[in-house]
Amino acid sequence: MGQARRQLKTQWLSSARLAALAVVLLALVLAVACGNNNDLGARGLQPDGTIIIVGTEFAFEPETIEIPVNEETVIEFRNLGTVDHDLVIEEFGVATGSMRIGSKKTVRFTPTETGEFDLICSIPGHPEAGMTGTVIVVESPTQTPAQG
Ligand SMILES: [Cu+2]
User: Model-level pTM?
Assistant: First the structure.
C-alpha cells in the first residue's frame, strides 16, 4: 500500500516537472519566433546587423552609433513616442520623413567618409529639445590592407 502511494507521488512529481519544462520550452520557442526585431525593448545593433534607433520625447536611443565606412548601414527607426518624429542624417542623405506614433521605417546608406555626423529629428523644436544624436563613422577593420 505504502509503496504504491509513494509511486503515485513520484509519478505526479515527474509530470509536474514535465509541465514546467514544457512551459519553459514554449517560452523559448515564442521568444525565437517573435525575434529581436519585434521586441519593442530592442535597441542598437541587432544580431542581423540592423541598428535599431528609437525616438521618444525628446531623445534618440541609442544616442550615438558607430558604423564602418564604405559598408552598407541598415537603420530601423521606431517612433515609440507620443508625437510624430523623424530621423535625419543630412550628411548621408538619410531622411525617414515624419513618422507616426508607433510606426517604424528602415533606411539604408553607405557612408563614404569617416568622422562624426549629426543625427537629428528635423521636426521644428525637437532638436532644440534634445532630439539629436551622433553617427561615428570609423575605418572598417575588414578593409585594412593586409601587411606586405
Ligand atoms: Cu522628434
Answer: 0.71
